[in-house]
Amino acid sequence: MKQLKPLFRTLLPFVMTCSLFLTVQVTAKTPIPDAAKYGYHAISARNMEAFLKFIASDELEGRNTGDRGLNIAAKFLESQYTIAGLTPVPGHDSMLQSFDVIETRTKESSSLSIRSGKQDTTFQLYGDFVILSRHSKSMSGSYPIVFAGFGYKNDADNYDDFKGLDLKGKIVIVIDSTPEWAALEEKPKGLRRKMRTLRRSKAEWAETAGAAALLHMSADMKESRIKLIKRIYARPGQMLESSLESIPQFLVNENLAKALFQNKTTLEALTSQVLDNPHAMQFALPETQIAFNLEIDAVAKTTQNVVAYLQGSDSELKHEAVVLGAHYDHVGINAEGEIYNGADDDGSGTVGILEIARAFAGNKKRPKRSLVFVSHTGEEKGLLGSKYYTSHPQVPLENTIAQLNIDMIGRNETNSVYIIGSNYLSKELHQINEAANSNVDLNLDYKYNDREDPNRFYYRSDHYNYAKHGIPVIFFFSGTHKDYHKPTDTVEKIDFLKMQKITRLVYLTAWKVANLDHDLSKDGLLLEDKNN
Ligand SMILES: [Zn+2]
User: Fold this and answer.
1) What average pLDDT does range 119-138 have in this prediction?
2) What are the sequence ranges of the domains in the chain?
3) pLDDT value at position 27?
4) pLDDT in the model for residue 318
5) In terms of CATH architecture, what is 108-294?
6) Domain spanning 2-101+301-414+470-531, CATH class
7) Spatial distance between the Cα atoms of 123 and 408, rounded to a whole number of angstroms
8) How far is the CA of 480 from the centre of ligand 1 (A)?
9) Is the pTM of this model over 0.90?
């Protein structure tokens, strides 16, 4: 850095104090509006503890999506919102937004065979391969195969690489990586989560090209890894009917990969050949066919979001809304009969937004815009409830000016909360939250407010489905802990005073946004990236 001029050096301390004073000025205490005071102080740890003792009780059996415990929780929330003075959204006669999910499981009797000449070699599920896709009905067939190197990876310049390849009615086999990652000695951080996104984009490409199935060859599929994947995929999974995959996706190990090439090469040798000459390494394997037999157990289950409404006071602006969300589902009971109470995940958010709703309804004056409280189902199954709500919004998404999402606020450091996504789509929303916090004085921790963060928390809760539609969001989160997704995530470990502070912060931010006399700015980091 260039050396500073002497005069400036003498002035520096004075300049520094001015700017410090200025910064302090910016985040100085912004008083709570009179009309919001009752609600703010009405938010109480005691109430939330009382609600959570029910929501996270054994009687609700871990609130698995589609099961009795969750349906009882829905009725409870509906009654509490109604008692507090909230209603269904105009045009709807119930707060329960019901829809079906498909619960599916691939039976272990499913198999995959390689036919080469007269020889048939059969491989067992969870032996040399796993199935990454979920389906609503059994399927089988035998298909010719084509090798496509690393396959498509979702950026424009890579698309033309496969123009000459006819994938119609064929099974496409690809190397389970990208040229960049395959060339790296050390694997980049957070690779596993990125792999999921990569495989999904390859599947979309293969499906669009008319392929019958997609097969990823992975050098990373050791026995321990297959065991881990089995633990996830052997359990029933749930999907919205609309997002059931159509073509099967297989992840196969080195052993199966070699068999595909009649043991004449290895995955490593194949990878370096593709790195050396990608265009040459795309070809059909005329002598070989793959036959698969998928046996699927699938059942439709009905579940529901709980959507409660508080109409705004301004004749115009009441048509716009701020959505407050949490997920009231959790993972149910495991094979050993242990109940996953989900007190923190996300019982804390569920009772948090209920308490905020009661606070708003208790105020004499309503904010200008309306408020919609959505208790999402199916979050643990893949953000299903928010996916369904944002594709069946009860207040049009274009009139939804922000979404504030709470997921896990009852544990860890008592005076701190992670803020994620607040400046991604609106810098003003970020500033409003900062200003609101001048009354609550929490430590707003932006450690995970990074889209490259390997934990990928920004993508892992319901706000993400709203952000995908360009709606400014804030995710309030207190971090995972030793009881995360364990039967030990129970009520007595919850810090209710911490929850009281965070819910008061969310309440104030919601109040300020709902009362803005102008449109919330749309100028966040995501939009800047897009424009650059
Ligand atoms: Zn959660």
Assistant:
1) 87
2) 2-101+301-414+470-531, 108-294
3) 59
4) 98
5) 3-Layer(bba) Sandwich (3.50)
6) alpha beta
7) 42
8) 10
9) no
